[in-house]
């Protein structure tokens, strides 16, 4: 029952799938067992034909005239996104944002376990942060091997992002989530995602300013 | 010297413009005055023809055989994005993520001033957080008017996101940056951007899993 050709799912669809999973899980918590594309689309703020098209990848879970089985659909989407299993991550840079992420219970709830917290500041090393002991970044390589870590999270200041990335790459992580607000260089086989709050803020200011221009 | 038809710039371009500004500002700090599309493209991890196409909106800043004047290009992109002026924001939900954002100096450095911090938890009200006094969410409306706030930032738990949004809407904000991990309903004239870390994580796990499937 694996969705076919999942590796061909385009990026925009992946982002919507992430929204669908979020909304479907909230529906499941509320006891919903079957949902049709209309109400799902409305809850996700996406039009219904787009939802049907996206979920065509998971066709076998749609029952004509009835809708999608919520539980099965969640599972199928998770398999295609690769989140039907646990992932272990190391966080580098225990500043405010790092601490916020370490404290963010939703990661663990969704199968992302931050199992190591690293910093090169001697005043932070040894500190307990939400159950993790902050460790010197030099020991990252051993930790990645011993703790089965595959993902690195960079929350350093921008000027230290590349050094953090180099440590993570040397340790052999396969993907990096970079919050640092600086571009980093990695080999082709390693995936990087940049989380930049300004993308969203610029989108807002662009839209608000545009609405003003049209008044 | 305003870029023409800036309101027609597509969303994907806006996201790249945000990257260009970030990279250009870093170049400016390093004393670079003129840059051609090749090195700019490389620094931004975008191909050069895409950079030239995006910057065609700002054509007058490209000088054939020389490149773009960094200073002027930064200014022109900022005008088109609506960030050539200051924006004032109110943050609702002073948990860990809220605190991290209040402490995040880059916002102010780029013209986004969080001038109010709101929470409905009586144990938090009155607390000083990085120079702001946490205020009861019920007083949001007065603050938005008195402090010229146009943007709301929601950092509440998911189940309180809509209530926070309702307060912000009632107060008359024009855009919302929602970190809460829950969809919110707003009227058409108000813009919402969802910041969801899981979009990025799912993109990573999808790519890593896909690379595995192809081995």
Provide the gyration radius of chain A in Å. Answer: 20 Å
**Helix tally of chain A?**
9
SSE-based structural type of chain A: alpha/beta
**Which strands sit side by side, in order, in the main sheet of chain A?**
6-7-5-4-8-9-10
Strand content of chain A: 15-25%
Q: Biggest interface: chains and residue counts?
A: A-B, 63 and 64 residues
What percentage of residues of chain A falls in helices of 4 or more residues? 40-55%
- The first-to-last residue Cα distance of chain A is 52 Å
Q: Mean pLDDT of chain A, rounded to whole units? A: 88
Oligomeric composition of the shown chains: homodimer
Largest sheet properties of chain A: 7 strands, mixed
Please tell me what the overall shape of chain A is: globular
Q: Show unreliable segments of chain A.
A: 1-6
Strand/helix succession of chain A: HEHHEEHEHHEEEHEHEEH
Report the count of strand segments of chain A. 10
Describe the structure using short key phrases.
homodimer, 215 residues, alpha/beta, 44% helix
Lay out the secondary structure.
The structure is a homodimer of 215-residue chains.
Chain A: H1 11-29, E1 34-35, H2 37-44, H3 48-55, E2 62-63, E3 67-69, H4 70-81, E4 87-92, H5 96-103, H6 105-109, E5 112-119, E6 128-129, E7 132-136, H7 140-146, E8 151-154, H8 161-171, E9 175-178, E10 191-194, H9 197-213
Parallel strand pairs in A: 4-5, 4-8, 5-7, 8-9, 9-10
Antiparallel strand pairs in A: 1-3, 2-3, 6-7
Helix pairs in contact in A: 1-4, 2-3, 7-8
